[in-house]
Amino acid sequence: MRRICVYCGSSSGSDPRHRAAAHDLGAFLAQSGIGLVYGGGNVGLMGAIADGALSQKGEVIGVIPKSLMEKELGHGGVTQLHVVGSMHERKQLMVDLSDGFIALPGGFGTLDELFETLTWLQLSFHDKPVGLLNVGGFFDGLIEFISHMSQSGFLKPEHAACVLVETQPTALLARMEAFRPPDLGKWIEKLAAEAR
């Protein structure tokens, strides 16, 4: 993988482990020769992951909407900073630039990006791996809810299994590199038949 997109909070959160994990993940990606694509901010976990990658002379590509750039939230030290017109453009460009995706702790925006990327994978709009770096059990409730969606018949087990979860970057990257998307052709054909 040449580049990994990381979704994470513009806040640092209340647990110092989250900021440390963001910085360490950025440094780990750079040391592994993998470029970072992220939301372009200089605050919170976004700023920490960019700074971590830059500390190891890694490639860092930020993508930020103009409205946020105007509030002076853009990171001035990244390799490239793409300023786009909307959140939709931001998400699309981040996907286009990346070979895989990792979510760190965050809020609504992080979950929005994560679930849109998972939905696109489910619908075969891309075939790239999506992982959760579960720092300090932050995603435990979400992982349980994904299982609940599957058990309730709203999410196929093969789709639930597409969410790769690890607590350490090394293990997560190994799983992402080995990832092969499920063959969803029959599922999509069945949906099309039910819609007719």
Structure write-up:
The chain is of the alpha/beta class and 196 residues long. Helix content is 48%, strand content 16%. It starts with a strand and ends with a helix.
What's the helix and strand layout?
Blueprint: E1 3-7, H1 16-31, E2 35-38, H2 44-55, E3 60-65, H3 66-69, E4 80-84, H4 87-97, E5 101-103, H5 108-122, E6 130-133, H6 140-151, H7 157-160, E7 163-166, H8 169-178, H9 185-195
Parallel strand pairs: 1-2, 1-5, 2-3, 3-4, 5-6, 6-7
Helix pairs in contact: 1-2
Taken in chain order, the helices and strands follow as EHEHEHEHEHEHHEHH
Topology, number of strands: 7
Number of helices: 9
Specify the helix fraction band: 40-55%
Short descriptors:
alpha/beta; 7 strands
Q: What can be said about this structure in brief?
A:
The protein is an alpha/beta fold. 48% of the residues lie in helices and 16% in strands.
